[in-house]
Amino acid sequence: MRKITFKVLSKLPTRYIDNGMILIIALFVYGIAGTHYVMDLSWIDSVYYATITMTTVGYGDYIPTTGIQKIFATTLAIGGVALLAYVFNIILTNFQEKMSKYSQGARKMKAIEVMEDYYIICGLGRVGKVVLDELLERNQNVIVIDKDKDKCESLEETNNLIVINEDAIEDDLIAKLAGEKCRSVILCTGDDVNNLYIVLTIRETNPNAWIVTRASKLDNIKRLRKAGADKIVSPEIIGGEDLYYESARPHLLRVTVKHTVDEIYDEFKIITKHRCTLENIEYHIPGIETPLTREIKAMKLHEGKRFHNYLNSHDDQRHALENLYKAANTVHSHLISGPDQTAFDKLLKDLEKQEEIIGVNLTNKEIAKITSKEIK
């Protein structure tokens, strides 16, 4: 308890206390000078009289007799009482506030101790708020750390949400929380320097912690990765991809087909022939509506040729891909971007000659109904 009290007192805000002490000193100087010139006392006696009058002790050994002396003694006594009360009141008020804050902090730490697997979110800006909503929607336990008091107070704590109004880069709070029970630390602050510092702080004591961080600038992605971040997400990259896909949507074609691994290169030759780009491949596992997606982004014939040669020279990779095709009963979709609808029409005609086309621009739900027949 003594350590806590000392820590609280050592961190009391000094602005108001300093102002109060300045006023007391000013009043003391006023009392000494006034006593010397108004009461006609020596400087030593003036210090003594000013002290006992300001503190309302008043031994009565020096008694004001004239009107001006009485007025001076009255102002000195009232000013001393008022200023001393002001300073002590500030000290007590701040002490109570700090003790309350430490008490709340202790309750939060006890709640964290009994909390099972949780996520930590550092930074409650626009990105952090979206991440928090996603986690709470899935009934996950979350600890939010943010130095903005207003943002923290805007959240209502629950059994699976604890909000800590602290700066994550100060002390070793984040390192303590990112222990075995922490599923992931998600750094959402918009300051890459802060994110980098937090990653380094966590890695010093928790080498196995899973850290996902935001990178506001592309140049800092490598630095964050070297610092120890497991996953780095850049809003610039994600935003750029979304803008591209939205702008290309009139020129995107989703073709659901059936063919074997041996026919991959022949299919790719048809796609590149019509100046189209294979954006990704989605494998539809029977009974699972959401497909398994592989990002490709290939449009040059030599890229398909290189992949074809790689499969032929690496039996283990070829077997793995064949097993994936087998699990999906060879049903998969290609997201293809192209210059115009005319190119798509020609592409579909050529693909029909090469393989079985199940449908064009089908939804996942429609494809799931088709693949579900395979497991009945």
Which terms summarize this structure?
six-stranded parallel sheet; Rossmann fold; 16% strand; 376 residues; five-stranded antiparallel sheet; alpha/beta; Helix Hairpins; Histidine-containing Protein, Chain: A
Shape: rod-shaped
Mean pLDDT: 82
Query: What name does the CATH topology of the largest domain carry?
Result: Histidine-containing Protein, Chain: A
The CATH class designation of the largest domain is Alpha Beta
As a percent range, the share of helical residues equals 55-70%
Q: Count of DSSP helices?
A: 15
Measured by DSSP, the beta-strand proportion falls in 15-25%
CATH superfamily of the largest domain: 3H domain
Structural class: alpha/beta
Please outline the major beta sheet: 6 strands, parallel
Following the backbone from N to C, one meets helices and strands in this order, namely HHHHEHEHEHEHEHEHEHEEHHEHEH
Termini separation (Å)?
A: 69 Å
Can you tell me the residue ranges where pLDDT is under 50 for at least 5 consecutive residues? Answer: 1-12
- The beta-strand count equals 11
Oligomer class: single chain
CATH architecture of the largest domain: 2-Layer Sandwich
Number of domains: 3
> What strand line-up does the widest sheet have?
3-2-1-4-5-6
Rg, nearest Å? 37 Å
Overview of the molecule:
The chain has 376 residues and is α/β, with parallel strands linked by helices. The chain folds into three domains: 2-110, Helix Hairpins, CATH 1.10.287.70; 116-233, NAD(P)-binding Rossmann-like Domain (Rossmann fold, 3-Layer(aba) Sandwich), CATH 3.40.50; 250-375, 3H domain (Histidine-containing Protein, Chain: A). The protein contains 15 helices and eleven strands. The protein has helices at residues 2-10, 15-38, 43-54, 67-114, 126-137, 149-153, 173-177, 192-205, 221-227, 235-248, 264-273, 301-313, 315-327, 341-354, 364-372, and strands at 118-122, 141-145, 161-164, 182-187, 211-214, 231-233, 252-258, 277-283, 292-298, 331-337, 356-360. It has a six-stranded parallel sheet, with helices on both faces. Strands 9-8-10-7-11 form a five-stranded antiparallel sheet, with helices on one face. Strand 4, helix 8 (192-205) and strand 5 form a beta-alpha-beta unit. The longest helix has 48 residues, at 67-114. The protein is rod-shaped. The two termini are 69 Å apart.
